[in-house]
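Teaching assistant here, posting this on the class forum so everyone can see the example we discussed in section. The complex has two components, and the goal was to see what a joint structure prediction looks like when all of them are supplied at once.
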Amino acid sequence: MNKVVSKRQFSENVVGLDIEAPRIAKARKAGHFVMVRVDEKGERIPLTISSADVQRGTITLVIQKVGVTSRKLTALEPGDMVHDLVGPLGHATEVKKYGTVLCCGGGVGVAPLLPIVEAMKAAGNRVISVIAARNKELVILEDQIRAHSDEVLVMTDDGSYGRKGLITEGMESIIEREKIDQAVIIGPGIMMKFASLTTKKHNIPSIASLNTIMVDGTGMCGACRVTVGGKTRFVCVDGPEFDAHEVDFDEMLSRLNGYKDEEQKADQEYSCQVDKK
Amino acid sequence: MDNRADYLKAERSAEWREALRKTMKNKERTAQLRVHMPEAPAQERARSYVEVNSGLTAPIAMKEASRCIDCPDPTCISGCPVNINIPKFVKNIERGEFLEAARTLKETNALPAVCGRVCPQEKQCEANCFYTIKLNAEPVAIGYLERFAADYEQNSGAISIPEVAPANGMKIAVVGSGPAGLAFAGDMAKLGYEVHILEALHEIGGVLKYGIPEFRLPNKMVDVEIESLRKMGVQFETNFIVGKTATIDDLREEGFKGFFVSSGAGLPRFMNIPGENLVGILSSNEYLTRVNLMGASRQGMDTPVMRGKRVAVIGGGNTAMDSVRTALRLGAEKATIIYRRSLEEMPARVEEVKHAQEEGVEFLTLNNPIEYLGDDKGKVKQIRLQKMELGEPDASGRRSPQPVEGSEYLIDADTVVVSVGVSPNPLIPQSLPDLKVSRWGTIEVDPETLQSSIPDIFAGGDIVRGGATVILAMGDGRKAAAGMHQHLQNAR
């Protein structure tokens, strides 16, 4: 059992939790994730570690309310327990001096992007971050990203904050202007697909951090498998980061929808239960 | 080994054993027929998680035990990977001392209720029974009797905890809580070590929990045996991935003097044929984990599972049988085994194949999938199968299947479970670059002591053997405990 120490509400649907996990806090690096099971009936879901405080022995997870498990998690308050938390999992991001790195984060993907932005900056790179969200409400961690970037461009779909437009438009405007040596892309599957197409067009080496369905997160089941460069890879042990230009995003998106009906049904049932209370 | 022979001899000449042998002539003993295991009716059980084998009653167990002639040279023991004193526990059942029988099992076996259920006795103890070897008759039902004694003890509420030596002040870690790790932990605790089991998942038990279904091995049986280990002082830590949460070096700094790696062969194999990543195609590990560990079939649990109407399971091992029978219980209208050899070559236990057939599983043998076809949403719809014929025997001695040219055809399936084997889990070898591993990814160990190329690290079970059996893993656990004990005592 791991105790929730503090909570931060980023927006109506996005919450940051600091959770006690001293060993994970000490061992984790940028790019790592954890598997979380919120209660005894819970499923196991993967969440990327957004930051960690070794002194306090906590890790920070940023969660967006999208279904039953994320509702349960975002409802937790300081003092509550997370039933199971295991990690750090996956390979850490390959951080080195590339030159100029374009860090692209969509929606809640900005949270896992943050430790990579920090690490890239610390490794001596010029870091340009493009963070995107549907609207002003959903822009998260802007100040933290800014603190470790040479430049930040905020994009919103509806223009309610920053520049109006999709992330790819923001990326294009920077690529037009200066030479980019490496790109990092994290966000919803569909955003990663189009962001990857954008950097591919300009021959910019890119990594994407994939967010597939997982069960155990330790290589045991293959629920998270994706096709990369024509080969089947397991995101949990071979990834979660891969060469973005080699990933079959269409297959990944279709696999992500594999349990859509069940998820919707469970969410409705859960809503009814919560309403009754 | 001489000690062992002397011990067996001394036990056999115990007064009660002498007396019991005289109560019945060997001719009378051998004239009796082997008992049949009562089973839940196929129609009922195929749609529920009730345990298929219902166990023996006391009178029937006593009668079956009387078939054993208490051989002077009990060959059955050599067939048991953990060397249970089989005649001693069987004779205790014959005289009605069921708790004593259970205690005998626990001298060498940390998980008798498990082994009595899942061991392939027909290839082990029972294959070496006097009846099998000399009389060409059906062997004493050693597995059923083991299960009977273990269950009797569990239900009696008088569970015996093996004696534990005074603490010797040495701390050792077990990586993985499957059968190998549990057997190792039991022996080391008896020797007075402070044993910490570190498990990656949120439950203890490894394949006993996530793999083998309730209808073959109820989880509560496993929990009772784990509780016994806890009472012996074994400490369990879940959600701990050695190599990730902490490295072996971190643990050495924390004072651990020895490590037993029993992390298993959890990595599923796929066939790498077109369409294998379509939605609805999953490994048996994923399928069984969702149902057994995560409770996906139960009301109120958050984990979902594919509930197909037409489910095809690829493979012919026990895992394939567990998967296809699980499919029936999840409501499949048609559940089919697709296997590239014939029924005779199937590696699954004969009993499991028989149970599957009774429950209505269809067997498509001498068939192999070569492609999966999906609908416009990327969900599997059909399988392209190729017929096979058996050619010459291969290196494993089995006749190798050859494709029949021009025999391809399509069948419908909305869920496919791929059960074509597992590879060793790479997490530990990856985190220890100096550890010697084979080209298959298994850890290389000394066959006698199970010590690896790193002196304080021992290994056993599937991480050494590749995919094998529960009881072989337990045998390794016991062997490694002896090996590590020797090593640590020498180092003192």
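For the discussion questions: The longest helix of chain B spans residues 470-491. The radius of gyration of chain B is 23 Å. Think about how each of these relates to the inputs above.
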